[in-house]
Amino acid sequence: MDTIANDFTINIATANGTGSQSANLILLQSLFEMGVPVSGKNLFPSNISGLPTWYIVRLSDKGYQAPGDRTHIQILVNPATWEEDIAALEPGSVVIWNSDTKKKTVEREDIISYPIPMSSLARKINPKIAKLVTNIIYVGVLAELLNIDQACLESAVARQFKGKSTAIELNITALGLGRDYCKENIVKEDPYVSESRKSEKPQFFIEGNEAAALGAHYGGVQLLAWYPITPSSSLAESVIAYGPRLRSDDDGNQTMAVIQAEDELAAAGMVLGAGWAGGRGMTATSGPGISLMQEFIGLAYFAEIPSVFWDVNRVGPSTGLPTRTQQSDIAMLYEGSHGDTQHIVLMPGTVEECFEFGWRAFDYTERFQTPVFGLSDLDLGMNRWACEGFTYPDTPMDRGKVVRDQDIFDAFETFGRYLDVDGDGVPYRTLPGSGMAPILYRGTGHNPMGVYSEKPEDYYNLMERLKEKINNARDILPAPILREEEECEVGIIYLGSMENTIQEIDDILEATGLKVSQCRVRALPFHSEVQAFIERHKTVIVLEINRDGQLYGILRRELPNNLVTKVHSVAYSDGMPPRASIYADRVHAKLKEVSQ
Amino acid sequence: MSDKPARAIKLNVLNEPKDSYTGGPSSLCPGCGHDQISSVIITAAWENGIQPHRIAKMSGIGCSSKTPAYYLGQSHGFNTVHGRMPSVTTGAYAINKDLLYLGVSGDGDSASIGIGQLIHAIRRNMDMVYIVENNGVYGLTKGQYSATADVGSKKKKGAANETQPIDLCALAINLGCTFVARSFSGSKKQLTSLIKAAMSHKGFALIDVISPCVTFNNNDESMRSYGYVKENEITLHMADYIPHFNPIEEVEVPEGHFREITLHDGSIIRLETISEEHDPSDPMAALTALHKAEVSKKHVTGLLYFDASKPSLAEDLGLVDTPLVDVPDEVLRPGPESLDALNAEFLS
What we know:
Helix content of chain A: 25-40%
CATH architecture of the largest domain in chain A: 3-Layer(aba) Sandwich
Largest sheet of chain B: 8 strands, mixed
Number of helices of chain A: 20
Number of strands of chain B: 13
Distance between the termini of chain A: 47 Å
Shape of chain A: globular
CATH class of the largest domain in chain A: Alpha Beta
CATH topology of the largest domain in chain A: Pyruvate-ferredoxin Oxidoreductase, domain 3
Number of helices of chain B: 12
Structural class of chain B: alpha/beta
Shape of chain B: globular
Strand content of chain A: 15-25%
Number of strands of chain A: 24
Number of domains of chain A: 3
CATH superfamily of the largest domain in chain A: Pyruvate-ferredoxin oxidoreductase, PFOR, domain III
Largest sheet of chain A: 8 strands, mixed
Strand content of chain B: 15-25%
Oligomer: heterodimer
Radius of gyration of chain B: 22 Å
Radius of gyration of chain A: 27 Å
């Protein structure tokens, strides 16, 4: 039998709260340490314990990180989804199942069945924690079947349980039991194996949320005000966790405050208070939190208060699917709050960018004196991604036009808080406590001196300046990433975590004879390079993980009329991380539709 | 100061004239209680000898929240959004804990839309003075009842209010607020002492000031009109404030019973008993006084409750001594070696 190495998908069906997550991470990490290009997706419920969870591990020498179209190896531990999981399998798939599960068996003739008495094996170790150990048993079985390196396995266990020797020992014993049972009782009939690869550059796994949190520290965050919400909580918790290490003096006192607010409104208010006082404040939330923060977002825009908001997008509208992923907050962020507004949105597509935009967000918000959003999503934020390391900021902190010294202040002929001295739309500010040019900040209309005004020309000029200020940011914000070959007629514009699927989509399209260029947008307002990309192509598809094509909508409105007709939307979302074939099919369908 | 000519402008302990503490002209209705409170704020800050630029004036939305424009023109201020002043103040405080945060709010701002933020600021013992200019009606929207309107009280137009009011002082005492006082905009002396004492307090100081709305709620049937409050005020005690920089002998010692409370900056508030003695360290006594006043349709004023023992938010935040706004960028951003170490650990 020919083997299939590093090109298959494992689906592990368990219930949440049973300890399966650590078993699954050990499996992922051990493959990763072998150098196998591997990715893991946790499809978990909005629940603490007992509801179905699937963990998808994809091994792909091509580096594909999307979940893939089908399951090749199914692990069955959860009786609740048993029949459904079996029915979904294609002929020839493998099922590794817990044969101790009451009233459950595997009867399909067209699949390869490996019954394993996981519960009995687990009970041998410790009956009291048999349920927990069951999960690590299937990892032992997989290790044997897939030929996973024992040293890598043990190193992954050690990493997972960081120095807790009892847990490490217990897990290694359980892995051995699974391996041994498999060796003695199972005859391998399937072709799937893992093979070590020598990676060119060493890499590690990290979640986008942790990367963004580290970035915030290297941006010198001074206040984190937050309210817990999935899937952003781990971003805030990582900021907190790194505080003692990165931000403490010898006595353990920190240069960063953390306040868990009473709700998202208060969290946003605190961030504005910090910005007003001259500090770097941030919050981390998800769509429902941003909905609640709208009023303050408008105040920050109008009163020109630096403030950083991270939105780890989950599925909306309303409570939606709290533990599923989507790119559906783009429009809300770009035009947040009532009245005419326009905001800077940074859209990382990799963990490296989560880190980089984590610190740059503060530079932009202080430079432009306007709220800045980081838009990540559940897929990027809560799953682990390979990373070669983070790069230290290459520029000093940009604190913007803050007048701190009396001499500098005295040199101003006239000082007005909202006076556009330099003609770039960005005024100068002084800080509370400084005694220089004190004003009463407000969300009401004001003149360049910061005094309340309802005069038509004051309002008009203020709104025009704000527009100009954001417009001037375009080409200073991160430029799009272009992958372009001259002969391509079709270009694809996409954003964010779609980065992890785009290569596979591209390969599928190319296999059908369609070569496309790619443009990954990394910030709003659009960089001028985006329009140039559209100009160079005959047809452009905007690919995004939502229903309405939000990025497309913004683009359409901002492009010159003669370019609008070139641009088309392919938007799709079912809550799952993007699967390449779905988008590739829809790109084909759209091209067919527009060519008619 | 004896070498000054007799007609010289009066100066405070910082040699500042009172003019350094005034603001712009008020646009409120003539006779508004809020303007009296603004003038008391000016006096209190001046007499307390606080550098005006070290005060941050905070407010929400409403008639009361417009007043920061009318006092302390040398202070930065933030007229935020409706009911959300406490959170903005909390964020500013985290960045610059050395400023004196002076919040002014109204009954709509504090008892309705912003009651959650008020409650949580109290819970954190956020270090600020929080004055509620409480008139029982919404002024800017032309006279609707607010959540503090007393049962049976009737404003100029419309029916009497029959909905149970929220007593912000009782609420604050129940939440463990560390400084709770009620006063009346017409009781200038008492209010001045209370605001001065609140400025010397470390922690959340709530002063609920009955401040009649002359336009919508100053008729005889209103329980928050000048006439009604003057007739029905129960004053717990006379209050005298003795600043920490004044020798105590200079203050006239009142006769009879009095109680002295030392505040965090060493200043003293001296409470002179009027009828039965009130113990401000006893929350039950404070709640009883409020309850008795309510059933007899009266307003009790004075320092209701005080507790100096609780840590304020500053202690909870675990920050370096330097206010974060003054921490240099090189200290805020961890050095490159720390990132090298992290990268190496992740890779190991």
